[in-house]
Amino acid sequence: MDILGLLGILLGILTIILFIIKKFSIIVAAPIATIVVLLFSGVPILETVFGKENSYMTALAGFVASNFAIFLLGSILAKYMDKSGATISIANKVLSVVGTKNPYNALVALFIISAILTYGGINVFVIIFALIPMAKPIFRQLNISWKLVTIPVFGGTSTFTMTMLPGAPSLHNIVPSTALGTTLTAAPFIGIVTSIAAIVFILVFMKFSLSSSLRKNETFHVNAKDENSNTTSKLELPSFMFSLLPIIVLLGIILLFSSVSNIIIVALIVAILLSAILFRKQISNQKEALNQGATESLSSTITTGSTIAFGSIATGVPAFNGVFQLIQSIPGPPVLSLMIGTGLIGGITASAVGAIGISVANFAPIYLEMGLDPETVHRAIAIGSGALSIVPYSGFLIIFNNLTGLTMKDTFKNGFISISVTHWVAMAVIVIMAILGLA
Fold first, then answer.
1. Is 285 exposed, middle or buried (0-12, 13-18, 19+ CB in 10 A)?
2. Beta-carbon count within 10 A of 259 CB
3. Triad 158, 22, 145: Cα angle to 5°
4. How high does pLDDT run on average in the chain?
């Protein structure tokens, strides 16, 4: 086993985490951490970082090319919804339904909205671009800690609707389906049981966290810059139906024409054009909204791409073959080592989808030869991918912090428990089912 190479991978991960803690941009931290990995791996550094094939830069460029349009349009739509006051109008309606006496009801409502949107096939980045501006006035009016927003949003977007529930149109369900020849409803019994366990865990954790926050007398607070930038209170808010219409149109187009290539881009463009018409009275300077949305999207895209590029290099060095061998030797039902191995890759790459791609190519054939059912392999890989996907350098977490104005200290604990620990609960359920002969 290449001990030196493994040390390099560990040092690379520690480097990127340290840089994030010291508040360096991930755009700076990721290439430096990549070089640390390569210094111990015996591969050409300049070629692997800057080369035109299979390099850090090509991985980054590939992500940007594939995803920039979604980030750009999603950010612009969110800016229209925010600046027009549409998000406040929607928030007011939500509060009128769930009431203001029980903040837990509002958290559950946000959790349900997040889950429905994700299960409807909406990209998670688009969801947080749209939901965060809507959630803020709810938290402000209820005067509860803004840090708690992590739990319903992460729990709704990135757990059971992403990896467990049969039929989910997420990439986490599509990638193993394509590779293994299974359907999106693979292993439905496992998927339903783990989904129930995940939902119960999230709701209990959310209740516990809210009660703890209230006992500490924590109230709504965001940094002064974010508060000062809020001018929507001076506007005449658009009606609830006008406010909701761009989101309804967005969802409707995606769901009705889901088989059309790049339909999410078309849907976002239509929603933006509709917003420009509906909110023209609220937004007198639409050029400013467009410019701000475009500028903010660039940082979000490069941030996420940088973490995935680092992970692609860290899992591509020769020493990582030794990691595969260690994973296969984990005792217990074979499905356990499969999930742990996939989760470990997710932690290194900071990408659940990246972990699934690597796992179906390298792990799945081995476990199929062991006799595991392809549907079980599908669901185990999908669920395992979320086990460590929230790390300090996760692009999703960094973008979420940028949008909310919260810090890593504010969000990491709740984010980790909401996503990673929830997946651990699901993994434990699968192991128990495997022991009982139910999986």
1. exposed
2. 6
3. 50
4. 86
Is residue 408 within 8 A of residue 365, CB to CB? The reply is no
Q: Looking at residue 387, what is its pLDDT?
A: 94
- Six-digit token string for 58: 């090509």
- The highest-confidence range among 31-45, 205-219, 324-338, 392-406, by mean pLDDT, is 205-219
Q: Which residue type is seen at 433?
A: M
Tracing tokens 């791996």 back to the chain, one arrives at: 41
Helix (H) / strand (E) containing 74 = helix 56-84
Question: 232 by DSSP, 3-state: which?
Answer: helix
Mean pLDDT is lowest, of 126-130, 269-273, 418-422, for: 126-130
Which phi and psi angles does 32 have, rounded to 5°? -65, -45
Residues 6+ apart with CB under 8 A from 263: 253, 254, 257
Q: How far apart are CA 107 and CA 98, in angstroms?
A: 10
Give the helix, strand, coil percentages of the chain, each rounded to 5: 75, 0, 25
Of 221, 215, 224, 206, which is closest to residue 148 (Cα–Cα)? 206
CA dist 88 and 92 (Å) reads 6
Give dist(CA 398, CA 408) in Å, integer.
Answer: 8
Q: Are 370 and 356 in contact (CB under 8 A)?
A: no
Residue 408 or 357, more confident: 408
Q: Which two tokens stand for residue 131?
A: 């939901």
Torsion region of 228: left, alpha or beta (phi above 0 gives left; psi -120 to 50 gives alpha): alpha
DSSP letters, 148-214, are: GGHHHHHHHHSSIIIIISTT--SHHHHHHHHHHT--TT-SHHHHHHHHHHHHHHHHHHHHHHHHHHH
Question: The tokens of 402 are what?
Answer: 């940028």
pTM, 2 dp: 0.78
Write out pLDDT tens, residues 251-295. Answer: 788 768 767 777 878 888 998 999 999 998 888 888 888 998 888
